Amino acid sequence: MVLCIGEILADMICERRIEGIFYKRCLGGAPFNVACAIKKCGGEVGFYGKVGDDSIGKALLSTAEKCELDSLHITVDPDRNTTLAFVDLDESGDRSFTFYRKNTADFHLLLDEVCDMIAKANIVHLGSLMLSEEDGRAFADGVYREAKRQGKKFSFDVNFREDIFRDRAAAIEIYRKYVRCADILKLSESEIGMFSSAATYEDALKEIASDGKFAVLTLGKDGAMYCYEGKCERIETIPLKPIDTTGAGDAFYGALLSKLDRNGFENLDKSVFFANVCGSITTTRKGSAEAVPSLEEINQYL
User: Fold this and answer.
1) What are 126-153's pLDDT values in tens digits?
2) 21 bridge partner residues
3) Calpha distance 245→233 (Å, rounded)
4) Helices 268-282 and 248-263, interaxial angle, to 10°?
5) What is residue 89's predicted lDDT score, i.e. its pLDDT?
6) CA 239, CA 25: separation in Å to the nearest integer?
7) Could you say which architecture CATH assigns to the domain 2-6+30-81+105-297?
8) How far apart are CA 124 and CA 137, in angstroms?
9) Which of 246, 209, 275 is nearest to 88 (CA)?
10) pLDDT digit string, tens, across residues 232-255
11) Measured between alpha carbons, how far is residue 252 from residues 120, 259, 292 in Å?
12) CA 52 to CA 270: how far, in whole Å?
């Protein structure tokens, strides 16, 4: 089983109509999106996170329960609101984020509430939004120590959101610790240069994965590149026209983690191509968790 830990929030996705600009509320949060993708791809998955005691939090909780994850522990914070992420899309479907999360619920997590779930997992995947706050970083450190104590693989998606940090250089140093300690790591093209000054993606990925970790770099329409045990391979994806890239990276990573949990580090080319297909299909639909394709839809391209 893969256990996903971290933010669950409301993605407020911009829609431009004749009448004006509207925002559609969708279930979101990178680690929750990853969890939904794992489940849709046939994997076993659990999720731990927190919402606020408000109408949005209650709606998210109700929707999350319908996703039929194998284990779901979403607590309601009586003193805080649910985090919001406003998502604006350009003409090519690329997105930008503005977060409303001053003292909101997503990063006020408790290690005692998740230790039993860690015990049942093979891979523990941690969301990164919590790292912008001191309480979130303390919790993240505790999750990592507990995962290692129990002999679990530790997964981390950089998923860097500059909007929530005042100091970019300080933020990169915070992230660097988790990049180093992850057994399984995902980065994007905009993130890999934060952790390596190598001239090429391949050299950068080899440097980042030099301590034996599995590292994967998403390349959008050009697929993905992975590195494991000194071997780097670039894997193509399928050509589809995107309308919304929100959640595509989460769909990719969830699909990949479902394969790594089931097959380990065997047949990595096939596992990464499977993930590429899942991510590509997701870009043809609006939304995040709800846009992830089913296993049957993915298999049509394999």
Assistant:
1) 999 999 999 999 999 999 999 999 999 9
2) 16
3) 24
4) 150
5) 67
6) 28
7) 3-Layer(aba) Sandwich (3.40)
8) 16
9) 246
10) 999 999 999 998 887 899 999 999
11) 24, 11, 9
12) 40
